[in-house]
Amino acid sequence: MSLEVRLTNVLQCLQQNGLSAAGFVSGVLDSRHTVHANSQESLTMNAARICAQLYNDKNSQPLVFAWAAGTLCGELCKEDEDNNGAFDKWPKKRQRHAAERNVALQTIKAVVMISIWLQSTNEQCNCLQGWMGFFMKSTCIPEKVIEVMAHAGLSVSLSTIYNMVTSISKEISCNIKKEVHTLRAAFAYDNFDITFNVAQPTLETRSSFISMTSATVIPLYGIDESNGEVLRCSAKLWASDPRNPLPSSFPVMNEIRSFLLLHKKDTYNWQTNPTQPSPREEAFAWHVHAILVQYGRSFKHFVDKLGEPETVQKIPVHKTNQIPCRSMNIKQSTTDGNVEVLVNLFRQGGIGDKSENDFDAEHDVDMSEHVILVHGDLLTKEQVDSVQSSRKIEHTPKNRLQYVIFLPGLFHYKMACADTLWHTYIQPKEGCEDENSLYQHIGILRPDETGKMVSKPGFRRVHDVVHHDFWASMLNCWRLEAES
Predict the structure, then answer these.
(1) Is residue 160 part of a domain?
(2) Do 358 and 234 share a structural domain?
(3) Contact assessment for residue 413 and residue 462, using Cβ atoms and an 8 Å cutoff
(4) pLDDT tens column, 98-155
């Protein structure tokens, strides 16, 4: 009798007794009768072959794999569940952190093992291996190590990593041009340094130091197609620019006139109601309250009632997706270096002046009538201002960098303010003789740093000293007022 006939007879018998094939196997394994011992042994001895056949079947393969993955995760985490009693003597916070860390580590191990199995069956299931390979290449891991990790199933091959880098570079380049072509994006750049050290310097191989420049494209929030023409003002600004040898718009807007106009339009210092303080005075009063509450010993219980200062011209919170540009092997700390950086950034963005010979009318966008906002540190601003002053006699907007509007960040404004305070109150020798001068207060607050404060203190030290002296002076004024 053939196997097919015997299987048909057995299935008919199971159907007559109200049992399915799965129910029959489950019942045999769960049975405790000695009569069924031989059948149980047969199933257990051939369990691996049965699982392999179920896995090879295209209908049951997803279910078998999901069960195997869940079972693996459960077994890996079982040790933490069994050891819960060992943490009873620990503090609750430490016990919770240790348990969370162990569970996270076990989950990571489970994901790694499952990812290795997935890649071994289908090489396109390489999400973890791709991330690992890209990470190792970006951190300068030796290629031999990457090859070993690839053979172990923890990374993709070197050729795949190179293809990933090429593909990502092309995609980012397209994104940069797509955003910059709208002429509604700003550039921000700064330098970074790389030191290549050698274990034993020789005449042929020495340690080298390279200063390069990194940049990013920042889409402007609130500027769209409806109001994008506000940035088309390069010629109008140049007409009243003080650097323009032949200005056509008067009055010329120099820095003093700009500050006067700013104060005329300022409402922050105006007292709208004679019985109420101005917004500036209210802000100062809040800071005085904050100093008394946070640093005074007798006002700690008012912390909950302090609140926040009243907002003035609140800037809405908005998430900006910036686009990193290609790093440039350019020394940005020089004047010529800043010009090269700007030219390189505009070339990456696909914008230029249509009157120039290198302008590609098919792929580039004309920016001669627009302004481009550029962000950087204070030294970058000095270099860009120097370039614009020396090129003011050029005939084209591109050659005189007419389109560049430099905007330092808030942190760099704070640096400029700290530098101004240092030059005004600390550096001059005449200001150090008064017993109420900031220099004398530094001798009390930081007696070991008086020499450093006069020479090159740096931003952070000046920033902390000014705040510390202001807090101490305010608390001392409150003490004298309370005693009187």
Answers:
(1) no
(2) yes
(3) no
(4) 878 888 888 888 888 888 888 888 888 888 899 999 999 888 889 999 999 999 888 9
Q: What are phi and psi of 477, to 5 degrees?
A: -65, -40
Q: Which one-letter DSSP state was computed for residue 214?
A: E
State the Rg of the chain over Cα: 36
Q: How far apart are CA 118 and CA 110, in angstroms?
A: 12
**Cα(108)–Cα(132) distance, rounded to whole angstroms?**
13
Pair of tokens at residue 156: 């993709």
Question: Does residue 338 sit in the same domain as residue 402?
Answer: yes
The residue type at 314: K
The pair of structure tokens assigned to 91 is: 């503090």
Q: CA dist 296 to 302, 306, 461, Å? A: 11, 13, 23
Give 229's DSSP letter.
G
Place of tokens 């990502």: 168
* Residue type at position 431: G
Torsions phi, psi of 262, nearest 5?
Answer: -65, -40
Structural domain that includes position 296: 269-306
Q: In terms of Cα–Cα distance, which of 234, 318, 289, 239 is closest to 471?
A: 289
How do residues 439-473 score in pLDDT, each as one tens digit?
888 888 888 888 888 888 889 999 999 999 999 99
Q: The tokens 């920016």 sit on which residue?
A: 367
**Per-residue pLDDT reduced to its tens digit, 381-411:** 999 999 999 998 888 888 888 889 998 888 8
335 and 288 in one domain?
Answer: no
Helix %, strand %, coil % of the chain (to 5): 60, 10, 35
Same domain for 439 and 419: yes
Contacts of 350 (CB under 8 A, 6+ apart): 176, 177, 180, 181, 360, 363, 364, 365
Q: Which of 391, 408, 425 is the last residue of a domain?
A: 408
Global pTM reads: 0.69
Q: Which of 408, 433, 465 is the last residue of a domain?
A: 408
> What sign results for the dihedral spanned by CA atoms 405, 406, 411, 417?
negative
- Within a domain: 110: no
The answer to whether the Cα torsion of 260, 266, 268, 272 is positive or negative is positive
Q: Which amino acid is at 204?
A: E
Beta-bridged to residue 372, according to DSSP, are 404
